[in-house]
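At this stage, I wrote out one protein, both as residues and as discrete backbone shape codes, and that material follows here.
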Amino acid sequence: MFGLFKRRPKTPGVARLEPLGVDVTVPVNQSVLQAALEAGVDFPHSCKVGTCMACRSRLVEGKVKAIRDFSYVLSAEELKAGYILACQAKLAPGDRIVLEVDIDSQRPHFPQLTCDGRITAQTALTHDIVELRVAVDQPLQYAAGQYATLRPAHIERAREYSFAAAPTPGGDNELRFFIRKTPGGQFTGWLFEQSRVGETLELTGPGGDFWLRAAEAPLVFVAGGSGLAPVLSVLEDAARAGVARDAVFLFGARTQQDLYQVDAIEAIAGRWAAQFRFVPVLSHEPADSDWTGARGLVTDYLAAPHVPDLAASHAYLCGPPPMIDAALAVLAAAGVADGHVHYDKFLDASNLAG
């Protein structure tokens, strides 16, 4: 008898996004941000886990269920004003909300496309990072620092990877990524198993809110591992545009064998329209090696004389969560304003379920 009763599917909620003027259907098992992105809405976001605050929005009508308490990143004043994090907000079945999305007037906007891609090159850069080149069947436009999602047909969940080259005006037909092998990662397990040149995958992009804001302040970049990709994209694009802001780039790696694209970075430094300092920092280099450069944690070098005027600088950070968190603490202690810090946490299978 009991087998005759079937549970009815729960009615999804609806989020009205202003000033975008669009309604998004929000399934009960998704966050507002995830539903918006899957609907093709260019919703401001970066980390998707409630730390970057790029998806901070004001709840004008209705109510949401917090996946994680908003108060751990939003102030009491923001909470009182109705602000939430879209990545940490779900709707009860059938509920409707109106959400005011905070859109930066400088924010680049390009149409999000889903297209077929074919792997044209797979080149080892280090023992656990490859450069992947993907040809797409239509030009894709993006801002330097943004990312695309990649998904082979046999893998259910797409993964996000930052573009590793400056964009071409009008769009690119071949895209470049730096991808690090992740223990237990379904996508990277498949990719590193053998050469995948000639294989096809689905690509969706662009996404993300890591991009260079217009200003005159000095710049400090911090990257670790495959977090070099968006920073290199931003630096190439800025050098091409003649950006004349003093810059320091701190690049963290374990050993000399984990350093890559050094020639490309030094070439950018040679073209930079102002002062540019590149500081590679090795955390696990053998004490008896021939390395004469910086040693330790890359965030140890977020200070003078390496970064002469940190408090006045605008910071751009890309890499693993521990590096980002440590850098944020140093920047906060130095008095760098929150609005002058932009970052992209590189989350992987060890940070995300599934």
User: Anything to note?
Assistant: The chain has three domains: 10-101, 113-207, 219-345. The two ends are 35 Å apart (CA to CA). The first strand starts at residue 13 and ends at 18. The chain has six helices and 19 strands.
